[in-house]
Amino acid sequence: MKITLTPRTAEHVKIYWKKIQDEEIRKHIPLESLSLEEALGQFEASRQPGANSFGMCIEADGDYVGDAWCYGIDEENEKMAMFSFLIFEKSLWGKGVGSEAARLFCTEALSRYKIRKLGAFTYAENIGSLKALQKAGFFEKERFLEEGRLSVYLERLKSVARAGQEFQDEKGY
Question: Above 60 in pLDDT, residue 133?
Answer without folding.
Answer: yes
